Amino acid sequence: MAVGEYPFPSMPALAGLRLATASAGIKRPGRQDLVLLELAEGSRTAGVFTRNAFCAAPVTLCREHLQKTPIRYLVINSGNANACTGERGRLDAIRTCEALASLTGVSAEAVLPFSTGVIGEPLPVDKITRVLPDAQSALSDTGWEAAARAIMTTDTRPKGFTGQVEHLGKTITVNGIAKGAGMIKPNMGTMLAYIATDADVAQPVLEQLCRDAANRSFNRITIDGDTSTNDSCILMATGRSDAEPVTMPSGELYDKLRALIIHAHEYLAKCIVADGEGATKFVTLEVRGGADVEECLKVGYAVAHSPLIKTALFASDPNWGRIVAAVGYAGLTDLDADRVRIHLNDTLIVENGGRADTYTEEQGQAVMDGDEITIRIDLGRGEVAETLWTTDLSHEYVRINADYRS
Predict the structure, then answer these.
(1) Which position among 96, 116, 129, 190 bears the catalytic label?
(2) What is the CATH architecture of 17-274?
(3) Which end of the chain is more exposed for a tag (fewer CB within 10 A), N or C?
(4) Predicted TM-score (pTM) of this structure
């Protein structure tokens, strides 16, 4: 079950990057569940990761490797998270890196490992290392969709983005894939994302772009309020475009590239929400009129995480009182309820401390019957605005997560 149309795009080759998939049989025999991504020498890489204290072994290793040497390879498995696996999990992640390093002639620190799947089970590292030669021999510049499918867990469809910008007659490409459908909450919500450009971007600029884009996208989505142990978002720049280098966070080319990279992140984040486990509604939460970012996010997440609101959305029930209650308990100091205005799409439902005089139940029902809904909340106390994306909570969500390990 998924909301809306997000077809996988036709992805052009991106100079300096090749991908391949293989079947390691980690959870199910025959399934393509391993991805190998190769970056050309001279590429630059940046990443942001989960803030969960029980972060998975590969997350810890990725953080370490990014600080040591330029990255040449990413190896990603689905079917097992290698999380909460103690010292064995760390050694298994290291073994994976060492096996690929031995195969390719790079250092183990030039490899980033990623895992997604069931938490608490030992990683079948021998299955992974056994198929690495197959993946290496299959590397090509056309493997984007296969890679997007191989990293899926409870996702119902692959998630991809491609876009280009022109500058002084030169073309820069941005491609990206992501996975995620549940255990999604800000601070990197169970999601993986890999976005690459052939632009030549200085390392400090790339790192700032990665942080800014993640905060505008993957850190603004929530499906169920659960922050995963494995969330990772990687931004890569191969430098193989013939456009001029981006050495500073300013200038026309930087502005164009930044806008496209943020757009790529936001699109993939929306793909994750639209494919939320059991989702039947795609919900945009616009909170404006805040005194600062923090209070806009407090209100947004109070609404997005309310089981009562999420189940009302699933039932297409315009029970606007639940939205009002969530705004009220979000924790804002001295909130003046009389100044709060709330819309469902363009229908005003709340103002002056109560139901809007112009509102009718029929208007609310018409909005809630759709599968894409915008809840607009104006706090009437400042100039700051934030946008979040979320879903409803359905019977199917319960079924998927009740059966996940079986």
Answers:
(1) 190
(2) 4-Layer Sandwich (3.60)
(3) C
(4) 0.92
